[in-house]
């Protein structure tokens, strides 16, 4: 064990002090919000008097109906007005300004598609990564890496808000630890509107809308599952709503992971002499990781029009892994110049914490709503990796036989937003909002060499580095949505976003700052072709800020053949995206076809440099442009009373600009076809069988491309009684999941393949008790313009809360 000697507090203080003026702006905004709350006390007191007159009416929502989002579209506001007389027929105090509308949740909205994931057979024992993998055009690999329409530049939000645990390299493991049982629906927002910020990539958004309870009384759900190779998971969720108070909470645990093997063969060609050198690598990696999550929230209705919420979420996950790598190097004559095995043993853990405060105030007009939300989330990743080399053929510049790497990384996000929504007399809806966010990250990597004789450790300066980044984002946005006529609806938006960034490469003593202002317009329109047919049009300008790892200029050791470094002067990538959609009813099926085009300028592209005969350094720079476009379709519905289908496909062309080892620019393109499908068959009234398949076509990656791949999952569910359900899942039933990558250029040729163990089988039980049974569970719509009743916290999730699908800022 390495004796850590980190004067971390002393090291952090300079960077923190430098960021103090920006943090003061955040604290000032919070103080202003408190003052604004105090200024509204007379109105709150008047509303409270109305509550005392009829506490039962003010405290509890309708127990058997969902509340439609009055601001989801102008038509929804009209429907709410039409329903008002029916609501007024019931005895109620005149101070009540709310109307409950019974209706179905919208599948699609003017700026997004909504996919219900509760109906998935594996929802009770899968992870959030599994749930995302069932969404059309979304692909999730076994490491938890998410891509949408072939691009990994995807934001993942929780109830419309960013979370530290879903940023950077930590995102994959967090998605695999989060239970799918907690998720109500997934919103796919390919062209985000003005209300959404540009954190975590700034590209398309996948918004996880968490489940929420809206019925008075108490209920709970317990799940327990056992899988192959020692895997298992369990969760317990509960909620209780009574009077003005609502409480929800739960705990979950999981032991899961995927073992893998890796093979690679690389040939480097000297452009002058034509001499070649060949390297090979064979690797195995194994180790399951444990995670546990705990969360809770309390909701209090100050009055009929004001709700306060406070939430807390904790998650911890182990970070253990064992691996063995075999490296070989051959000269142009085939002679072995280096051959050795490298064992890897990593131990550590990651922790994620979230706290939230929220105030919702309903105005005098139907649908008028002000929301103020403060979220603080942190993530810490610690690991200690021990490397040991055993040489068969020792090269002239052999690495030490033993090394140790100690990593301590942390991220903190403070996100404060306010959103105001006002329906006008004309039926139009105006939205305005602000955001102040302070994001800080610290990366501390220490690499030690060991003397073989004395076993004394010493710092390896070339592989040890500390890096800090502090980023302040402030934004204002506004949007205007209206019904042009009986057929046309439109929404226009504009967002102004200022970024101020300070970077400190502690080891290299490099300080850098960057500041820029961006204007981001967006536009959406719908046209009603017929009773069941709509056209949708959308445009959005977005930016993708470089991540902390892309900005760190220090040379980072990856493996014996690869190193990488960032660039602190990278600018954000500018993106313009367009989409046209056609929605109709094709017989018994719902059909959607969407054509899209995306253009990126000032892209962050890789440049590879040969630093030795065997080692390649990959760095980053702005330059060139990437373009992609395609056609996407979905078909869903019941083919027969027992058989339902949900299938989708995506045909797209991607074009990228790259720079080779000689500095030559080139363009390359690839056409890819992705198809996925889900078949549900009701064997008996109590038994359901589900088959899920996913085929991914050729995809451009880095300097090469990824070969096509396919996988299939099978699930079975049986209702043992009204409360108890048996679920069996078999993932990757043909053991076909792999990542096969090819690079073919004049100076570098490489082939690699990574295979994962499969199939993975889970068998589990799901038990529901209390006021809501599995077969009649009610989940309301994610609502902008909706004030949540008591108990608005989702039964699970970290960073969740009412108002999912609302302004994401």
What's a quick, concise take on this entry?
The chain is mainly beta.
Written description of the protein model:
The protein is mainly beta. 10% of the residues lie in helices and 56% in strands. The protein contains eight helices and 41 strands. The strands form four sheets. It has a 22-stranded antiparallel β-barrel, surrounded by four helices. Strands 1-2-6-7-5 form a five-stranded mixed sheet. The protein has a four-stranded mixed sheet with strand order 25-26-30-29, with no helix packed on it. A hairpin with a 4-residue loop joins strand 22 (488-505) and strand 23. The relative contact order is 0.16.
Q: Could you list the spans in which at least 5 consecutive residues all have pLDDT below 50?
A: 1-106, 772-809
Portion of residues in beta strands equals over 45%
Radius of gyration: 27 Å
Number of strands: 41
- The assigned structural class equals mainly beta
Question: What is the approximate shape?
Answer: globular
> In whole angstroms, how far apart are the ends?
44 Å
């Amino acid at each position: 064990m390495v004796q850590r000697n980190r004067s971390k507090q002393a090291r952090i203080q300079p960077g923190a002090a430098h960021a103090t003026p920006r943090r003061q702006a955040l604290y000032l905004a919070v103080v202003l919000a408190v003052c604004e709350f105090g200024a509204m006390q007379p109105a709150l007191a008047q509303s409270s008097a109305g509550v005392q007159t009829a506490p039962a009416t003010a405290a509890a929502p309708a127990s058997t109906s969902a509340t439609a989002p009055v601001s989801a579209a102008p038509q929804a506001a009209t429907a709410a007005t039409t329903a008002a007389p029916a609501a007024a027929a019931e005895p109620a105090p005149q101070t009540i300004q709310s109307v409950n509308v019974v209706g179905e949740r919208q599948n699609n909205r003017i700026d997004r598609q909504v996919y219900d994931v509760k109906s998935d057979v594996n929802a009770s024992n899968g992870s959030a990564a599994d749930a995302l993998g069932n969404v059309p055009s979304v692909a999730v690999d076994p490491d938890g890496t998410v891509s949408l329409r072939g691009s990994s530049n995807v934001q993942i939000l929780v109830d419309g808000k960013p979370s530290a645990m879903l940023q950077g390299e930590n995102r994959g493991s967090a998605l695999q630890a989060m239970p799918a049982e907690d998720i109500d629906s997934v919103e796919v927002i390919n062209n985000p509107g003005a209300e959404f910020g540009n954190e975590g990539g700034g590209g398309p958004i996948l918004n996880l809308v968490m489940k929420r309870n809206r019925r008075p009384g108490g209920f709970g759900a317990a799940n327990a599952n056992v899988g192959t190779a020692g895997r298992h998971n369990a969760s317990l969720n509960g909620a209780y709503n009574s009077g003005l108070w609502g409480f929800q909470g739960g705990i979950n645990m999981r032991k899961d992971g995927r073992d893998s093997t890796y093979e690679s063969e690389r040939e480097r060609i000297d452009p002058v002499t034509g001499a070649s050198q060949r390297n090979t690598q064979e690797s195995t990696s194994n180790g399951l990781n444990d995670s546990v999550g705990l969360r809770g929230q309390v909701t209090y209705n100050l009055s009929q029009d004001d709700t306060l919420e406070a939430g807390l979420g904790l998650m911890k996950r182990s970070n253990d892994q064992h691996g063995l790598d075999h490296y070989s190097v051959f000269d142009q004559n085939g002679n072995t110049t280096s051959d050795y095995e490298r064992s890897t043993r990593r131990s550590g853990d990651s922790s994620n914490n979230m706290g939230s405060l929220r105030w919702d105030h309903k105005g005098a007009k139907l649908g008028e709503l002000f929301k103020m939300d403060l979220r603080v989330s942190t993530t810490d990743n610690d690991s200690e990796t021990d490397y040991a080399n055993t040489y068969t053929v020792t090269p002239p510049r052999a690495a030490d036989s033993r090394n140790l790497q100690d990593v301590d990384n942390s991220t903190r996000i403070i996100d404060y937003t306010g959103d105001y929504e006002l329906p006008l007399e004309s039926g139009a809806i105006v939205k305005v909002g602000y955001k102040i966010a302070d994001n800080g990250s610290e990366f501390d990597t220490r690499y030690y060499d060991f003397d073989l004789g004395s076993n004394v450790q010493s710092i390896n300066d070339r592989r040890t580095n500390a890096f800090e980044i502090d980023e302040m984002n402030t934004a204002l946005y506004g949007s205007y949505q209206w019904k042009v006529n009986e057929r046309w609806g439109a929404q226009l938006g504009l967002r102004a976003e200022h970024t101020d960034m300070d970077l400190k490469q502690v080891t290299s003593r490099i300080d850098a700052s960057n500041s820029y202002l961006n204007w981001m317009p967006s536009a959406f329109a719908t046209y009603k072709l017929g009773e069941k047919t709509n056209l949708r049009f959308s445009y959005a300008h977005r930016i993708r800020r470089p991540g902390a790892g892309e900005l760190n200029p220090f040379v980072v050791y990856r493996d014996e053949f690869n190193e990488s470094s960032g660039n602190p002067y990278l600018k954000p990538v500018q993106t313009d995206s367009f989409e046209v959609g056609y929605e109709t009813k094709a017989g018994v099926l719902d059909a959607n076809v969407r054509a899209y085009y995306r253009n990126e300028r000032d892209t962050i592209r890789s440049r590879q440099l040969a630093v030795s005969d065997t080692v390649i350094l990959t760095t980053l720079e702005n330059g060139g442009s990437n373009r992609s476009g395609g056609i996407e379709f979905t078909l869903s519905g019941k083919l027969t009373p027992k058989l339902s289908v949900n299938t989708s496909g995506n045909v797209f062309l991607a074009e990228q600009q790259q720079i080779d080892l000689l500095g030559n620019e080139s363009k390359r393109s690839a056409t890819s076809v992705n198809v996925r499908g889900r078949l549900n068959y009701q064997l008996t009234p109590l038994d359901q069988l589900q088959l899920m398949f996913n085929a991914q076509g050729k995809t451009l990656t880095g300097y090469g491309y990824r070969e096509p791949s396919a996988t299939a999952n099978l699930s079975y569910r049986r209702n043992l009684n009204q409360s108890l359900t048996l679920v069996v899942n078999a993932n990757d039933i043909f053991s076909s999941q792999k990542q096969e990558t090819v690079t073919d250029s004049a100076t570098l040729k490489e082939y690699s393949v990574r295979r994962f163990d499969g199939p993975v089988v889970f068998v589990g039980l799901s038990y529901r008790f209390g006021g809501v049974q599995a077969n009649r569970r009610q989940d309301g719509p994610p609502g902008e313009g909706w004030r949540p009743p008591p108990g608005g916290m989702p039964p699970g999730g970290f960073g969740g809360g009412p108002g999912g699908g609302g302004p994401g800022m």
